[in-house]
UniProtKB/TrEMBL annotation:
EC number assigned by the record: 1.4.3.5
Function: Catalyzes the oxidation of either pyridoxine 5'-phosphate (PNP) or pyridoxamine 5'-phosphate (PMP) into pyridoxal 5'-phosphate (PLP).
Cofactor(s) required for function per UniProt: FMN
InterPro entries per the UniProt record, alphabetical: Pyridox_Oxase, Pyridox_Oxase_CS, Pyridox_Oxase_N, Pyridoxamine_oxidase_dimer_C, Split_barrel_FMN-bd
Organism: Phytopseudomonas seleniipraecipitans
Binding site for substrate: 69, 126, 130, 134, 194-196
Gene: pdxH
Coiled-coil stretches: none
Listed HAMAP family: PdxH
Protein name: Pyridoxine/pyridoxamine 5'-phosphate oxidase
Reaction catalyzed: pyridoxine 5'-phosphate + O2 = pyridoxal 5'-phosphate + H2O2; pyridoxamine 5'-phosphate + O2 + H2O = pyridoxal 5'-phosphate + H2O2 + NH4(+)
Amino acid sequence: MTQTLADMRRDYIRDGLSEDQAPPEPLTLFKSWFTDAVNTEQLPVEPNAMTLATVDADGRPHCRVLLLKGLDDQGFTFFSNYQSAKGEHLLANPFAAMTFFWPTLERQVRIEGRVERVSPAESNAYFQVRPLGSRLGAWASPQSRVIRDRGELEGLLAQAEIRFADEAPECPPHWGGYRLLPERVEFWQGRASRLHDRLDYRRDGEAWLRQRLAP
Ligand SMILES: Cc1cc2nc3c(=O)[nH]c(=O)nc-3n(C[C@H](O)[C@H](O)[C@H](O)COP(=O)(O)O)c2cc1C
């Protein structure tokens, strides 16, 4: 290793985030930053990839990367297996946090709030636009369960292929969408000398309270 971990650092100089640029509610700013990320981040970075943190019944946190698949005035939608570890956590504790990191833009967005399942109709509408392999995979994979080996997974996929040989797979009951309803959204713009800009929105009844946080 020519560079030690302690020596790894980058100064952030690309942009700033001032109160003048920040609308009274966070979704407009998120959409604007997301558009910037789509236009700026280079492949293979997926701008809609985020880290989702959930907390299990024992109060222990867990996080993993997921893809954001929908955004509207209600909140941030992602899809997964309802029987997965995250699905169990969300049953025990319906609060979660997601973090987006767009390194080229030197930006991070943190979102926190309650999570609810989307309607079966909404899950099915998204399921039907997934490629066939992904739809069969959702039927085949008992996500987060221990499996013997790769062969077991391939066997489960083969069973799903036989089951759906003559009909299009519908959305499995154990699979679907979740929507995080934001209560807090923080925008972080890297600045020089670690004096970053942080604008924090907290839900305040029907409105949003916007405050600057120290970096
Ligand atoms: C780039 C990337 C995108 C992913 N997207 C999803 C996704 O949209 N839904 C999903 O269930 N898992 C997705 N995963 C897999 C999850 O990180 C995780 O392994 C899986 O959901 C099981 O998590 P759990 O055991 O905590 O429930 C993705 C992983 C990566 C690296």
